[in-house]
Specification:
extended; two-stranded antiparallel sheet; mainly alpha
């Protein structure tokens, strides 16, 4: 973490110990593991559809806002 913060401060990726993409992949896999744990079942990810093979698990992919605010679609 310290290495990443230093790279951000220097505005340079040259000193990073690992590529940024590696951190992104680890974060995604961790979230998928958390979703499988909450769903209490083995899940399979469809990369093309960007969803799981289980509709109940898909509910954890995005936050449901109850206060009228929504994030913009990108």
């Amino acid at each position: 973490m310290v290495n990443f913060v230093e790279a951000v401060r220097k505005k340079s990726v040259e000193g990073l110990h690992a590529p940024i993409e590696a951190g992104a992949h680890i974060a995604i896999f961790s979230q998928m593991g958390n979703i499988a744990y909450r769903a209490k079942k083995k899940l399979f990810w469809d990369k093309q559809k960007r969803s799981f093979n289980d509709k109940d698990a898909d509910q954890y992919l995005a936050k449901v806002y109850h206060n009228g605010y929504n994030l913009p679609k990108v």
